[in-house]
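U., I forgot to send this yesterday:
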Amino acid sequence: MPEETSGPLEQTLYEVKKTIVGQDALLERMLVALLARGHLLVEGVPGLAKTMAVKALANAVGGEFQRIQFTSDLVPADVVGTRIFNQREGGFEVSFGPVFTNLLLADEINRAPAKVQSALLEVMQERQVTIGRESFPAPDPFLVMATQNPIESEGTYPLPEAQLDRFMLKVLVGYPSATEEFVVVERMTTPPVSTTAVLDLDTLRAHQRATEAVYVDPQIIEYAVTLAAATRDLSAAGLGELARYVSFGASPRASINMVLGAKALAFLRGRDYALPGDVRELARDVLRHRIVLSYEALADDVSADDLLDRVLAAVEQPEVEPVRRTAPAP
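Result:
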């Protein structure tokens, strides 16, 4: 493996870690989604600092942060905004909703009804909001980080597969270790350390353009396509005994996001070229929410990650010689 230099967002990550203890995978995936202009779905039990992580990142990049606590009585206007009548002017004007921000936390998104979920879907996919007959662009940069609680099902509306597919990554957040939890308690029982902005939005947009210029070898693209295709045809990957556990495999959007994520991960680690290991490292986060399991999988307690472990083991990772390129100035 080639030596990796200090990434351009190392200082940003350090600033966030003044507040957040552990959660290295979550913080790295947040930056990957931000650089690749994607969105993030986080699943974990309450109390694991998911909200605090997004807020700390927003403060570190100098962006605006908004939070929506989803409940079953929300309507689309509560999210995207609506037209209100201005008595003084004698006409209607637009009141923008909380989605007009740089980093949006959609807390417990699966508690929102379908109408609200579809309203959020437009701004995630099209980067715009339609209010009345007018369309308004979302701010740039724009990141949606949605959370859902895996231990409750009462009063929830599971996200349809079409909306899950719009999330670039799905990250599973677990409990901290005993050492990390000690530090968490220690920090939360003393005066908090404020997160300062170490990055401005113009620089972040320049980093996003530099991420787009990261070189990806065709063999890496082929590797991403092969991984996604293996979830659709397990027999072709030599895993025919697992085919009964999958109703639908990952869409081509998975292949796209694995390559985009690999470019962002490479840039984050100080490289201007991607490696097959970047795709492999992000494959579970990109694929786990795009696989529709069958009833047999649920009955046999087989998870998407169990299947992906077998797929990653079955699909050979290509050997690609690192190629350094001089990326164009952003």
